[in-house]
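FYI - complex with flavin-adenine dinucleotide, inputs then prediction.
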Amino acid sequence: MRVGGPALSLIVAESTSEVVDAVRAAGTSLLVIGGGSNLLVGDSGFDGTVVKIASSSLVVDGDRVIVDAGVEWDTVVIAALDAGLAGLEALSGIPGSTGGTPIQDVGAYGSTVSETLESVTILDRESGAVEVWDNARCGFGSHRSSAFKYTDRYVVLDVTFRLATSEMSHPVRYAALADRLGVSIGDSVPARDVRKAVLELRGERGMVLEPVDHDTWSVGSFFLNPVLTEVPDAARDAPQFDDPKGTKLSAAWLIEHAGFHRGYGAEFGAGTVSLSTRHVLAITNRGGATTADVMALAGHVRAGVQERYGITLTPECRLVNCSLG
Ligand SMILES: Cc1cc2nc3c(=O)[nH]c(=O)nc-3n(C[C@H](O)[C@H](O)[C@H](O)COP(=O)(O)OP(=O)(O)OC[C@H]3O[C@@H](n4cnc5c(N)ncnc54)[C@H](O)[C@@H]3O)c2cc1C
């Protein structure tokens, strides 16, 4: 998002053993980052050590892809397609590192990484142990959650995916994607066609990083889709989706229907921030924004949704030394 202050010190760890050594040496004042795409740091910065994971091994072994945490996610999608392996194609174009993907069970267009993730190797900062966790242990299930979210205890060192040996995609599950491909929900098409369609759709919504396009200067979706045990009366018209922990509503729908349109908020920070002009769920830096500007707009939108629907939205991104108050 191109906001936030400096770190006291930065270590770029280029192999798994360097990651383990750097994390063990850093003590408690540590921030682990991958691509930094889902992170907001306060304007005063971070008074500790940042370990940037830059490990780079990617091995295709039969139907398995074993990837270091530092590998850029979209490189994995491309490598899988090149190897004739299907299952990741709908996750094309998501920014960030592979190690970042299990943290919030990254997902898009009806697909999530947990569907093909076989195991992760983690460093447990509490015990100091390096362990391999299978999928069941990772706590996936509910929207954008895992055992690794909202805790600094675990550092993801590498991830193993088990994919389908096929040039054809996993069944298409998302209506807008099926429409774009001209097929029905449940159909399979060449996996490369899914990648192309997803990149087109994401590009149209400003969800593929593009340095000159301020709509992409964001953390992606700023707020999580709320999962509620009871939907308030005021929100009963909102589209509802099943979730293992209750009913999931669309944060974008709530924001839009609470009166916030695309491009809203130009008066915040003297024009330095606004909602994306293509997508109300992304708060964007129009150039020269501070974290305080971003927080002011995010807090205002959250208050508007709270007032209209009685639902408090939660940020999806990691907030470091900044908050919505
Ligand atoms: C334009 C845009 C579009 C996006 N679209 C989507 C989308 O469609 N779907 C989706 O799910 N997300 C999306 N995101 C969010 C983001 O891409 C993902 O959350 C991504 O996985 C973050 O990875 P990262 O390496 O950048 O994480 P960072 O931003 O570096 O870190 C995010 C959090 O994960 C932790 N972390 C990172 N790496 C590790 C590791 N190896 N071990 C332990 N903790 C770690 C950090 O400490 C931090 O708490 C989007 C973001 C942007 C900017």
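The first strand starts at residue 7 and ends at 13. The CA atoms of residues 51 and 255 lie 35 Å apart.
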